[in-house]
Amino acid sequence: MKAPQRREREIARTREDIVDAASRAFVEIGVHDATMQDIAAEAGYTAASLYTYFRSKQEIVEAVLDQLTAEFLQVFEQPLPSNLTFPQRFEILLVRQLELVEKRRAVDAHLSLGGGRERPLPG
Question: Are 57 and 36 a contacting pair, CB within 8 Å?
């Protein structure tokens, strides 16, 4: 593998790590209240180093939204049996979406219960 390709993959992985860390920070602190320092601490970087990969917090927020959108759309890309009726296919898609929501909720609950700056779980 050539050095530029390897470097591009390293950059992509680092950006993904930062986006994942930002997601956790946003859950724990809130999107509005989370700072670049909070995101950097969650990711294990300095705030200044984040600017190597993202121009601003807003760009990180947009990357998190892009990640969530991609996860949502992947549900529709998974194959469905062709012999199902529309209601059956709709039900499968709905269940898959709910599973995704529950997966996210489990992460939120884990983070909320895991120390640090806790926030109450929704009733």
Answer: yes
Backbone region of residue 16 per phi and psi (left: phi > 0; alpha: psi in -120 to 50; beta: other values): alpha
Q: Which amino acid is at 45?
A: Y
Give CA–CA dist 114/121, Å, rounded. Answer: 12
CB 100 within 8 Å of CB 75:
yes
Q: Indicate the pLDDT class of residue 54, thresholds 50, 70 and 90.
A: very high
28 compared with 15, residue with greater pLDDT = 15
φ and ψ at 102, to 5 degrees? -65, -40
Please name which of 47, 97, 20 lies closest in space to residue 28, comparing C-alpha atoms. 20
Average pLDDT over residues 37-41: 96
Tokens representing residue 20 in the block: 């994942």
State the pLDDT at residue 72: 87
CA–CA gap between residue 39 and residue 50 (Å, rounded): 9
- Consecutive H or E run containing 116: none
Mean pLDDT in residue range 98-119: 60
Name the E strands within 1-123.
none
